[in-house]
């Protein structure tokens, strides 16, 4: 009986640790560092240039500009002090314009 409990203990610890690391992961895509995060109205001219006004309005959220994905989550690093970590629904134009973004905290 005790052998079974001790055999399952590492699995339970692993599951709880992975849950803690997953708290700032995106369910919709990668976590990105964006040089600029704007509201839809602030980014309207850029969205118009890329014909994304309707798509952005349908998705909602913020618009991330000049974004790069974070490859290592949970380290508290990846974004510079000038960048904003965000989770975005749609990554259009290879990070130049990301729509449906919401800010996240990587240091929590």
TrEMBL record:
<dbReference type="GO" id="GO:0009277">
    <property type="term" value="C:fungal-type cell wall"/>
</dbReference>
<comment type="similarity">
    <text>Belongs to the fungal hydrophobin family.</text>
</comment>
<keyword id="KW-0964">Secreted</keyword>
<feature type="signal peptide">
    <location>
        <begin position="1"/>
        <end position="17"/>
    </location>
</feature>
<dbReference type="InterPro" id="IPR001338">
    <property type="entry name" value="Class_I_Hydrophobin"/>
</dbReference>
<keyword id="KW-0732">Signal</keyword>
<dbReference type="GO" id="GO:0005199">
    <property type="term" value="F:structural constituent of cell wall"/>
</dbReference>
<keyword id="KW-1015">Disulfide bond</keyword>
<keyword id="KW-0134">Cell wall</keyword>
<protein>
    <recommendedName>
        <fullName>Hydrophobin</fullName>
    </recommendedName>
</protein>
<dbReference type="Pfam" id="PF01185">
    <property type="entry name" value="Hydrophobin"/>
</dbReference>
